[in-house]
DNA sequence: TGCGATGCTCGTCCTGCATG
DNA sequence: CATGCAGGACGAGCATCGCA
C-alpha cells in the first residue's frame, strides 16, 4: 500500500527528475532499441528521495504504457518524449497525450489479414464456436489455403511492410540524434558509393552489412538490417538519384522490390523474385525526372526498360515491368497491352521461368488493386487471374487459375504452364504440385480433402494420448482426455496440484522469466516478501484454499466445473511480480508485487474449464508437461478437426485468388517450420518412449 | 456474504522481426 | 541460431472493488 501510495505521490517535478536522471545514465551512444537499453539500465542508480529503483522503473513503465509512447525509438528518445509529455501535462490537459500518440504499427501478417477477413463470416456461420475454436478453424483454413489464395495476403503484407519501413525510416530520419550516430559510421561512405553504382543507379544496395548510405546533398538515410540495407530518402530527397522525388531503396539479402508511393519509390528485391509496386501516382520505371527503382539481382530482374514494355511508360502513373529471362510476363508486356493501367499503376513480375499475372479490376492480365497492380510468378508456373473485369483469366468454379489463350500470353506458358484443372477446390494445389513436384514434393494434391500436407508451417503435434484416431476432434474428446496435461511450457505443475492430473496450474511464461533459473522458487511467493503486503493477494493463496470452489457466477457457468470442483493453487504468472527487481525485470514487468498498482499478481491457472477442455485443444495434454522444456506452445496442438466446420470453398473467400510464391515465407519462418517438422517426426517416432 | 461491474489476462492461430 | 514478442479479435476466467 505504501508503495502504491508512493506511486501516486509522484509529482510532476519528481517525474521530471526521474527522466533527467534517466537521461544521465543512458549509455551513449544510445542506438539500441529502447527495450534493450531499458533492460540493462541500472535502475537502482535512479533511486532518489524515497523512490527506490524499482519504483522509478515502475513509474517509467507507467509513463510509457499509459501514454502510448512510441516504441520504435531508442530509450533516450523515449525519455525525451516522456519529458515533453510531462511538461505539457501541466499546460493543457488536452495536449499531453497527443504528442505521444500515433505509434508506428507493424503491418499485419498475412495470417492475421486472413483471420480478420474471414472471422466475421465464420462468426455468423458458426456462432457456437468459441473464439479459440474459431481461431483454430481459421488457422486450419489458412494452412490449407491454396498458395495462390494466400498471395493476396502476402502481397498486402509486403506492401504495408514497405510502407512501414518507409515510415520507420522517415521517423528515424527525423531523429537527429540517431542520425548523428549513424553518421559516425564508416559504413556510410561505403554504402553511399554502392548506391551510386552506374548500373543500379537508382537503387541503393548493400550486399553485405553496410548500414548507412547517404546522398551528399539531399538528406537521406539508409539503414541496413543484418545483411540488408535500406536506403531511404525523405521528401524531396533521394538516396538513389531522384532529384525531386524521394526514393527509398531497400535491399534485403538478395531480394528486390520496387515500390513507389506518391513521390517516393522503394526498391527491394527478394531472392529470385521481385515485386514492384506503385500504389499511387508514382512513376518508377521510367519517369524522366524520377529515377527508376527497379533493379535486377541474380536471377531476377526488374525491368524498367522502356523497350520491353509499353506498359512501363506511363508518365504520370507508376508502372513497373520485369522481364527476367524466361518470363512469359515480360513477353506479354512487350506485345500486348496487358498490364496497362492508364490511371492505375501496374506491376508485372516474373522471376525465373515463371510468370503470374492477375488482374482484379482494370487490368486484364496484370493484377491491379485499385491504384496498383502486382503480378507475381512462381518458379515454373504461370497463372493468370482476373476475377472481375479481366478478360483473360476465368476460372470455372473455384479454381483460381485460369487460362486465356488469346488475351494473355501471361497465362500461357507453353512449357511450364500450370493452368487450373481441378474443378473443385484444390486446383491450385494441383497445378502447383505439378510444377513443383519435380523439385519439391512438399506440395500435395488432394483435390477434395484438406489434408494436404503441404508446406504447412505449423507442426501438428499429437500427444501420445491423443494419438489414436486421425480425425478425432479435440472437441469431441471426452472430458477424460483432459487428464492428460497439455504439453505446453505454459503449463507448469505445482507440486501441490500434482494429485490432480491435468489440472496443473499453468505458469504463463514471460520472456525473462523462462530464462531466470530462480524463477521457480519465486513462483508462489507470499506477498509478505514484498515491502508492502497486499490486501488479500492472490499470490498468497494457499493451495488449500483451492478446495473451496468459488461461487462466482461465472464459475458456475463453466460447463466442466463438475469435474473439478476444487481449484488448484495459483501460481504467479509474471515473473517480475513476484521477484526482486534487481536484475531481470524487463519492460512491462513490474519489479515487485507490492508495487503493482493495478494489476494483481495473478496466477497462471485456468479454471476447471480449461482443464476439461471439451472445446479446447487443451484436452490434448501430455502428462509430462512440467518436465518438458519450453517449446513453442503452438507446437503442442492437435490438428484434429472433427469439430471443425467443413471447409468452405474458397470461392467466396477470395475475390482475388492469387498465386503465391511458394517461397513467400521468410527464412526465419521456414527454419522454424523445419524445426517443427523435426520435432514432429521426433515426437512421432519417440512418442512411445516418451515420459509418462 | 454474495453478486454485479470492472479491468486484466489468457488462449488460440501465424509470421516477421528483434534480441540474446 | 534459437527464442520471444507483437499484431488482430474476443470469450472466458479471474481478482478486486463496491454495494446490498
Layout of helices and strands:
Blueprint: H1 2-8, H2 12-25, H3 34-40, H4 53-66, H5 75-91, H6 110-125, H7 131-144, H8 147-174, H9 176-183, H10 187-194, E1 220-223, E2 229-233, E3 248-252, E4 255-261, E5 264-268, E6 274-277, E7 296-297, E8 300-301, E9 319-321, H11 328-335, E10 346-348, E11 355-358, E12 382-385, H12 427-436, H13 511-515, H14 519-522, H15 553-557, H16 608-611, H17 667-686
Parallel strand pairs: 3-5, 4-6, 9-10, 11-12
Antiparallel strand pairs: 1-2, 2-3, 3-4, 4-5, 7-8
This protein binds a DNA duplex (20 and 20 nucleotides) through helix 3, helix 6, helix 7, helix 13 and helix 15.
Keywords: DNA-binding, Nucleus
Subcellular location: Nucleus
Region (Disordered): 190-692
Amino acid at each position: 500500500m505504501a508503495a502504491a501510495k508512493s506511486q501516486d505521490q509522484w509529482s510532476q517535478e519528481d517525474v521530471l527528475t526521474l527522466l533527467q536522471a534517466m537521461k544521465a545514465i543512458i549509455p551513449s551512444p544510445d542506438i539500441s532499441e529502447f527495450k534493450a537499453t531499458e533492460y540493462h539500465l541500472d535502475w537502482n542508480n535512479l533511486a532518489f528521495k524515497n523512490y527506490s529503483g524499482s519504483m522509478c522503473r515502475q513509474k517509467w513503465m507507467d509513463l510509457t504504457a499509459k501514454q502510448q509512447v512510441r516504441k520504435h525509438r531508442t530509450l533516450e528518445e523515449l525519455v525525451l518524449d516522456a519529458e515533453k509529455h510531462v511538461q505539457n501535462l501541466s499546460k493543457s490537459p488536452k495536449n499531453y497525450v497527443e504528442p505521444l500518440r500515433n505509434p508506428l504499427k507493424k503491418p499485419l501478417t498475412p495470417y492475421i489479414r486472413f483471420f480478420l477477413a474471414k472471422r466475421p463470416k465464420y462468426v455468423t456461420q458458426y456462432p457456437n464456436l468459441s473464439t479459440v475454436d474459431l481461431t483454430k478453424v481459421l488457422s486450419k483454413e489458412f494452412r490449407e489455403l491454396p498458395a495462390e489464395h494466400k498471395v493476396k495476403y502476402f502481397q498486402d503484407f509486403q506492401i504495408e511492410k514497405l510502407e512501414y519501413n518507409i515510415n520507420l525510416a522517415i521517423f528515424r530520419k527525423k531523429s537527429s540524434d540517431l542520425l548523428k550516430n549513424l553518421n559516425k559510421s564508416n559504413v556510410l561512405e561505403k554504402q553511399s558509393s554502392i548506391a551510386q553504382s552506374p548500373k543500379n543507379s537508382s537503387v541503393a544496395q548493400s550486399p553485405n552489412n553496410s548500414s548507412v548510405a547517404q546522398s551528399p546533398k539531399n538528406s537521406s538515410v539508409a539503414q541496413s538490417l543484418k545483411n540488408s540495407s535500406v536506403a531511404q530518402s525523405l521528401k524531396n530527397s533521394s538516396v538513389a538519384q531522384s532529384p525531386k522525388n524521394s526514393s527509398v531503396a531497400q535491399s534485403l539479402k538478395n531480394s528486390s522490390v520496387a515500390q513507389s508511393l506518391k513521390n517516393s519509390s522503394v526498391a527491394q528485391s527478394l531472392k529470385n523474385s521481385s515485386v514492384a509496386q506503385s500504389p499511387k501516382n508514382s512513376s518508377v520505371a521510367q519517369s524522366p525526372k524520377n529515377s527508376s527503382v527497379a533493379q535486377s539481382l541474380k536471377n531476377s530482374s526488374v525491368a524498367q526498360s522502356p523497350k520491353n514494355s509499353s506498359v512501363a511508360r506511363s508518365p504520370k502513373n507508376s508502372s513497373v515491368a520485369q522481364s527476367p529471362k524466361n518470363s512469359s510476363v515480360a513477353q506479354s508486356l512487350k506485345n500486348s497491352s496487358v498490364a496497362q493501367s492508364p490511371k492505375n499503376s501496374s506491376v508485372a513480375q516474373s522471376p525465373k521461368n515463371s510468370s503470374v499475372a492477375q488482374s482484379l479490376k482494370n487490368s486484364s492480365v496484370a493484377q491491379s488493386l485499385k491504384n496498383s497492380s502486382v503480378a507475381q510468378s512462381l518458379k515454373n508456373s504461370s497463372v493468370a487471374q482476373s476475377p472481375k473485369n479481366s478478360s483473360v483469366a476465368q476460372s470455372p468454379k473455384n479454381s483460381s487459375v485460369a487460362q486465356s489463350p488469346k488475351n494473355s500470353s501471361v497465362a500461357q506458358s507453353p512449357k511450364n504452364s500450370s493452368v487450373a484443372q481441378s474443378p473443385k477446390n484444390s486446383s491450385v494445389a494441383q497445378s502447383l504440385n505439378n510444377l513443383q513436384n519435380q523439385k519439391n514434393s512438399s506440395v500435395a494434391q488432394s483435390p477434395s480433402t484438406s489434408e494436404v500436407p503441404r508446406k504447412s508451417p505449423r507442426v501438428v503435434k499429437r500427444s501420445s494420448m491423443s494419438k489414436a484416431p486421425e480425425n478425432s476432434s479435440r472437441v469431441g474428446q471426452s472430458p477424460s482426455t483432459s487428464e492428460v496435461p497439455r504439453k505446453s511450457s505454459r503449463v507448469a505443475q505445482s507440486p501441490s496440484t500434482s494429485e490432480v492430473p491435468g489440472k496443473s496450474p499453468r505458469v504463463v511464461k514471460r520472456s525473462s522469466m523462462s530464462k531466470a533459473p530462480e524463477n521457480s522458487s519465486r513462483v508462489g511467493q507470499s506477498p509478505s516478501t514484498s515491502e508492502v503486503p497486499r490486501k488479500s493477494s492472490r499470490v498468497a493463496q494457499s493451495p488449500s484454499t483451492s478446495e473451496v470452489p468459488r461461487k462466482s457466477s461465472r464459475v458456475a457457468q463453466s460447463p466442466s466445473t463438475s469435474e473439478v470442483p476444487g481449484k488448484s493453487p495459483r501460481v504467479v504468472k509474471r515473473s517480475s511480480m513476484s521477484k526482486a527487481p534487481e536484475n531481470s525485470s524487463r519492460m512491462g514487468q513490474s519489479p515487485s508485487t507490492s508495487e503493482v498498482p493495478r494489476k494483481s499478481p495473478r496466477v497462471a491457472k485456468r479454471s476447471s474449464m480449461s482443464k476439461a477442455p471439451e472445446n479446447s485443444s487443451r484436452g490434448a495434454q501430455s502428462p509430462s508437461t512440467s518436465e518438458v522444456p519450453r517449446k513453442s506452445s503452438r507446437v503442442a496442438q492437435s490438428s484434429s478437426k472433427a469439430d471443425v466446420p467443413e471447409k468452405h470453398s474458397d470461392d467466396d473467400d477470395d475475390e482475388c485468388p492469387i498465386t503465391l510464391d511458394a517461397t513467400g515465407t521468410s527464412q526465419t519462418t521456414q527454419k522454424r517450420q523445419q524445426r517443427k517438422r523435426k520435432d514432429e517426426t521426433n515426437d512421432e517416432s519417440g512418442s512411445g518412449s516418451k515420459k509418462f
